[in-house]
Fold each of these.
Amino acid sequence: MRAIIFDQPGGPEVLKLGEWQDAVADKGELLVKVHASAINRADTLQRRGKYPVPPGASPLLGLEMAGEVIGLGEGVDKWKIGDRVCGLLGGGGHAELVNIHQDMCMAIPKDMSYESAAAIPEVFLTAYQALFWLAEIKKNDHILIHAGASGVGTAAIQLAKLMDAHVFVTASSPKHDLCRTLGAELCVDYRTQDFHLEVMQQTKRRGVDIIIDFVAGPYFQRNLDSLALDGRMVMLSLLGGGKPDHTDLASILRKRLKIVGSTLRSRTHDYKVELTQGFYKFAWGEFENGHLKPVIDRVMDWSEIVEAHKLMEENKNAGKIVLKVS
Ligand SMILES: NC(=O)c1ccc[n+]([C@@H]2O[C@H](COP(=O)([O-])OP(=O)(O)OC[C@H]3O[C@@H](n4cnc5c(N)ncnc54)[C@H](OP(=O)(O)O)[C@@H]3O)[C@@H](O)[C@H]2O)c1
């Protein structure tokens, strides 16, 4: 089969379309002809040699896919040949064929394209896990979402709005309109404004119940300062660096804060199945009725993979960069 491959770690230019051994459906797995996949930051880190592939996962790039079932492994009883499915992968989505466990698949809604469906799994499952499982979102919570126009951020805004949350985001200002359209009440340009001051003013000095953070180091103290009593913070990335400049830990005790970190890719198969099924049950009707939608920056042919990685690394996308597997 054809797949996106690279011979040695490096910049985007190491990526190319090449040949790889065909994927094979094992027990309980589907063989899927991939029609679309999408880029994630983890792909760019893996390309640079900075994201070791979890044991048992395909070494190929691509953490999600949408496609058509063309083969059934032993014991598959939930799907049939021709079904349209999308799902989260440990790797291997940037290929013509992929094998995926039947319990990790979600049925693509009738009117949804493969390109739209490929933009859902990684960012929506991450945002759902962060808000519902880790931060235990409640109705009407006040929530600060950093990198609000990122793939995960745009999914998190929409999921939070389903809980009637008051959503505040940080993002570069050209991306504010998108965040507002999705439901953000306050958009802060972190390059020119101090999000802590803005959030405290907006909440009349109460602070927010939940922070979804991707920036880490330079935000850590201001995140603690911006949380309300019993606040929860979920840390998903270290985009700004892993070391806080200055931290006064007293507020963690005083405000009874909960701080949790997570990486979805390293979770066990059973955890990911439970997450996928829980998300499908909670959210799939909302995609069908239009309350949730994958936010797509652009769709590119997979032959444009070098350009696609460059765009993401230059922070040019708002929402997902989808790859059409042609
Ligand atoms: N832990 C997990 O389970 C998990 C799962 C999925 C993704 N992630 C991580 O979550 C992050 C978002 O992923 P994504 O695919 O949604 O990303 P994305 O669509 O590429 O968006 C990332 C955005 O973050 C902003 N940004 C980048 N560096 C920044 C910095 N130093 N300070 C402030 N803002 C910065 C940029 O937007 P602006 O224009 O607003 O600056 C950029 O476009 C990535 O780091 C990814 O690795 C973690």
Amino acid sequence: MKSAVFIDRDGVLNRMVFDETHGILDSPRRRGQVEAVPGAGAFLREIRAAGNFVVVVTNQPGIAKGTLKIASLNSVNKELARQLAVDGGQWDELRFCPHHPGPCPGGNPIFVKTCACRKPASGLLLDAARDFDIDLATSWMIGDGLVDVAAGRRAGCRTILLTALKWSMAERFLDCAGGEPDFVCRNLAEALKLIRDGETPARQRES
Ligand SMILES: [Mg+2]
Ligand SMILES: [Zn+2]
């Protein structure tokens, strides 16, 4: 069995995009909106060099909502892979959840449903673990959302919440959510040191 690093896509490998129509940060929906997070390619390169299998796990409810076509999702993923490869980074597998529990007016009814793969559910991780003979107990889940942490916990992985929040703020945020990651890292460089070298992140203190 192998160890994996499961990793969220939006906000972790690529930057979020400001959607002017709705005034929110959203996933990139077309190739031109894709901007890899600095350091993400190097992180994937190093984490794979250390012997980890990398699985991107991402919720893409735009498919259910009818705001994102599968072809566009593939095009975004392809562009992200191209940018990460500039620094020698790649993933081994990418799994996405196309569902949304609804209601999704004008959406695609095939994908509007309660599923077992939309994070915080753990279906994406469990399915990949089965398909690739992954040992979940020695694997990690990294994400910038509490749904990522919850999915990782449910799958039995160690979990890392990525956040640039000061530690006192992060603690408050975590208290509200009731979801406890095993570790909080400021960025992927810290996550790499933790996973590869066992170096516990220095938590930020209020200055
Ligand atoms: Mg995210
Ligand atoms: Zn799903």
